[in-house]
Description:
20 strands, four-stranded mixed sheet, alpha+beta
Amino acid sequence: MKRKFNASLKHLNSFSVEARAGQLLELESEEDLQSFFSEHRFDATRDLILGGGSNVLFAGNVDGTVILNRVRGKRIIEDSNGEVLLEALGGENWHQLVLWSLDQGLSGIENLSLIPGLAGAAPMQNIGAYGVELADVLESVQTLDLQSGQAHEFKQADCQLDYRNSRFKSADTGKYLITGIRLRLQREFVPKLAYKGLSEELLTMGISEPTARQVSEAVIRIRQRKLPDPTVIGNAGSFFKNPVVSRTTADLLVKENIGLPVYPAGDEAKLSAAWLIEKSGWKGRSSGRAAVSEQHALVLINKGNATGREILALADAIRVSVRDRFGIELQPEPLIVRS
Length: 339
């Protein structure tokens, strides 16, 4: 188990903002996990479990301990009747897991290609993109209770998965360390191309009957074109959730705002946060060293040495503008850490 005190977190968050942790622990093996629970009592008010750092904004320091789960491993544990149960430990890189699944001839998560972060963080916010969510393939989540160290498995139905949310991000925040996930994938590929931009991208590529790998390649092309590379310019991808409202509210907004994209969301409707932000005049606009990306209005960027507080101030200003103009309250997607 690697340990550092007064550790910089700048290289551990995709916004590349400076923040410090009183202590930084990096867990790389099952033995490290056991040592952690024998030596450390997790305090949810001061400590933080950090995955790939791609869905967090440090607007302050972490006074306590930041724990990095870097325990890696993946395997197929069941393979019968065209269905495969794949297990990935929490420290596995998500995108590399998607590519590995394709190498095994599996399908089901190809639409989730190039989503940054680790497998252990995937169920936290029920990652989703281009018409697919983790909930569609998740079988179960393996965890350790952060107080007792006892192992507990949550079946998909018990994870309380919702749009960019789960029990691990809401009711049970700070209660469990996710050590692994199990996914139910398929041998026979059935493409999910309901997302218009994805089907259009495939046609641009000259593909009418895609393979799972070709769908993955199309998703990668779209994401690389629309979203800035966090290794080049600091960002956390989509900063705001698409707001979910009643169908009545959506109908009224569409009547008043021609062109507002609306998507079905069960008995409700989902609005395009990017459209609301762009129509509020924020796309490409800067505020000090923070800005809204010119590529995508949902992406806030660190233009260079911005602080987390500067980025948060920009986000707050955007929320006020959208609320004043449309009466809609935007909610941030990343975890906001304040000292």
